Protein 1
Amino acid sequence: MLCSKITVIVNDQKKKHGSKIDIYTVKVGEGNSAEEIKKAKLATHGIIAKDKAGKLLTKVDGHTYGKEKVDEVIGKILAATK
């Protein structure tokens, strides 16, 4: 489960950029999250950012980051859409 701090940050980014890119959260253990975490080589959870073709753009381990890191990831995704 995402901590409330990160959930708020991600939801704000959805409001701002949701018309340009797909932003979604998945709880660890739901869907194919375990496989995605393994493929991205994350320890347990974090951010996995992919381009439209499914290629890994960047990843962030854990959730000890804040708004600046989330903004950085969103910037990388947006740059990949140009």
Protein 2
Amino acid sequence: MPREILLNAFDMNCVGHIQQGLWTHPRDQSTRFNTLAHWTDLARTLETALFDGLFLADVVGVYDVYGGNADAALRGGVQVPVNDPMLLIPAMAAATQHLGFGVTANLVYEAPFLFARRMSTLDHLTEGRVGWNIVTGYLDSAARAAGFDAQMAHDDRYDLADEYMALVYKLWQHSWADDAVLADKAAGLYADPAKVRPVHHHGKQYRLDAMHLSAPSPQRTPVLYQAGSSPRGRRFAAEHAECVFLNGQSEAGVKAIVDDIRGLAVKAGRQPQDIKFFLGATVVTGATEADAQAKFADYRQYVSSEAALVHAAASLGVDLAKFDLDEPVDASASNAITSNVAAINRTQGPQWTKRKLLQQMVLGSRQPPIVGSAAQVAEALIDWTKATGVDGFNLSRTVAPECWTDFGRLVVPELQMRRAFKTAHRPGTLRDKLFRQGDRLPASHPALRVPAV
């Protein structure tokens, strides 16, 4: 019998997220992203379809690698304008009871003391339904916006992240005792000072002498997502992540990463089951295969090749505008998402060209879509879990909101019929829903092993 699949919607507080150009489709509603109603409607749709969560991407820079400026990104709405994803979560949480929220935040540009309070606040307001997608960034434009000449080297960003995590763990896990808050009105005693202690951290990058400003939230530490697939990123994930987001490669490639990270986690003192893996996926479905293929052909008419190259250029760290269609692209000096470069080299060979890249981006991204009837899609998703060991999927937006309603209306019943998807939401925090082991981090997690002060 197949395992129960976990499912997130994958979206971003912008017009054009992954499938570039599809916002121009007549039925697409992504231009409503500036309105709360757009997001509360989405949250209710996802909860009705029994999705586990909404995974919100984010960047804090602009895609200015292609052509050496942001003009093409602005023309195509390629993740710009992009609004703060965190501000959406309380409204969506108020509109739902069960949906989880994974929010991306770049720790390089977030002061850890204030960020820790912001995440604790969200965990309180959502009653324990929030997760943090830990990223270290890949855009020089973001570094310049924050006052730096350029971003740090790839592996140095992860070294910074290790210290950052140690610091926020101290704030979330060790500053307040679980029973510090008494709220004793008769005695006029809200919190016991003896059970709240300051954190003293004097590290290479950060200094802090302060107590956490928030009392313990339902999960204390938010569910920890991470998406690094480079060798350094895998080590970081094995140490810290509870959920790892993988982008599409071959089945063998995905399985190799899953096995490697789980093996590294065991070496770090964790258990293999401490980590869930989510594979990025794009689905175009219909009641029949013919319906799905017709929809796919319709969607393809609205793809923007230029916008797709803008996004790819930023993630690869290579100005693709400098290369002719059939000229080999040299990405050897990339300081962006090095795992993306490695993935293209594996699939296209080291002498890949823009023409080959565009041939791969049939829906405006490098993620090959799953196109088929609801039954075919369900079987494909189950096959991926069996072949690779992934636990679930992050489904990227195509034409919204129909991509979400189609999946819930058509594919979810097929998965349920195969006993590969839940039939009702379970109560509890996001962590307990995902792992069924309680609200808090397991004892094997390094957050519980950092020095308390």
Protein 3
Amino acid sequence: MKPILSVKDIKKTYANKTQALKGVSFDLQEGEFVAIIGSSGSGKSTLLRCINQLVSQTEGSIEFKGTEVEKLKGAGLKKVRREIGMIFQHYNLIDRLTVIQNVLHGRLGYMNDFRGIFDLYSMEDRWKAYKILERVGLADEIYKRADQLSGGQKQRVGISRALAQNPSLMLADEPIASLDPVSSSTVMDYLHGICVEDGISAIVSLHQVDFAVKYATRIIGINKGIIVFDGKTQELSDSIINKIYDNKCNSVSSENTTNEMIQGERVAV
């Protein structure tokens, strides 16, 4: 079976000479739910952003459904991006807009510029957004401003916005790093459940090994920009975890130092 995503020898060096990725390669099969684990600065965030070209790799290629995404521009890149949903650690919602307006932004990739600028969403899109919010338990919050929500609720809006794109692939960059344990479980339950039910492939970067083990069937461990483990969840041993985290306790901070480096390279979705 041909993979939905093929990452081939990806390398990324930033302008300050920091090597975030040093030759990362892996394939993702349709319907897989993969967790990427590693310390802050290991390259997890850079890898996810290279996949949808929010950051351009220095070397290597990324094929999504057989198309090399780094070669795409304009309409071609827009078309691929609408099939790749992105969920961010810090939500990336527009605070002054309502919950349902934020979710509807997931439909912008299917609209022309005029309709997008003036928020001319169809009734079909509005109904779809409502049904998605219903799936994540936010049907009663659709007209509430985003800045009135809790962190867990904001992340469920982020999931809903990504789902509104009708994605084939879902990328989640530290989706629970800013949340308490109860909210983290709720968010991961919804994210995992929806991906499994809808057959959406997913790559989720996580600091928390216990959550990776609970939800993923495959785990990729990255250390200093290099994959040091890629295997089934049950194959993840204490010795492998120590190798991924350099024998350090997995009590790493939620702030990924790589995020600071990529700010200058981020482009609009």
Protein 4
Amino acid sequence: MRRFVLLGVLLAVSSLVARRSQAQATHALKPTPKTVAWGYYDAKTPPVLRIKSGDTVEIQTLITNSPERLEKAGVPPDQVEQSLRDITAQVKDKGPGGHILTGPIYIEDAQPGDVLEVKILAIKLAIPYAYNAFGPGRGYLPDDFPYSKIKIIPLDEKRMVAKFAPGIEIPLHPFFGSMGVAPPESVGKWNSGPPWIMAGNLDNKDLVAGTTLYIPVHAPGALFEVGDGHAGQGDGEVDITALETSLIGTFQFIVRKDMHMKWPRAETPTHYITMGLNDDLNACATQAVREMIDFLVTEKHLSRDDAYMLSSVAADLHITELVDGNKGVHMMIPKAIFVSGASK
């Protein structure tokens, strides 16, 4: 009898392990002319990969520039990725934005009103260089720099620094400038430049490996896209580009039906982050503060008065970026202040 009981237990455990393994599959997605969306988020874009909630995907993204311009700036032809050449030559459906985004990925069971939890598990460099550039009429000081310039910047992956110039080395903190889902179908094609309710081109340098992004879902399957790889960036991204490069990221996607929010939020190992996205910087700050108050009320069970006070004495506002149509401000509050089991 004991043998039959033991056998039943073993079979049940084996079945559970198999179900968990199946529910958390691992996928890989590389950029090809058939697996990218050039310059837009759109609820009508057919998915290039379907996964289940809990699955992990290794996604490769491409530097947003043309092979010709990179070579003209000094990149050896053999260091220009063949996938970038193929996509530049073959993809005809481009714009209205300029980012080459890998995806979209359809996550089963994700429905409008849910939240997509995006765990950024790992990020690594894909090429040994980055570029920074500005152009006429763009950036935060367009009148001061009414011409174009591009600079190729070598990346030392072993030491994790960018060799900006003799005597200047920048520590690398790779992150994806653009991570987002489809907007509501009624919006149509959303320009990949301005971030909005579906996240997108946040350019938030704090969203490195080990952090989590929470995005409201607006279309069935969420339709996640990612790109605009940065080896590093300053808050503000004032000349309109960062250390632009190709990256490989590992993400885990979890559909959260227990969460409901209007705007993206994020979490690092040390901080909670709320965001404000608007074409007016004051409106961005207002939204980020209100989102922090809502977070503290709903997640930390503070009164609105105490949440407002705590935001003033413990949280920090940062200018995320200034140059992508919608500007960004994010507010960070440290987890360490929530002691005695209060931290969630």
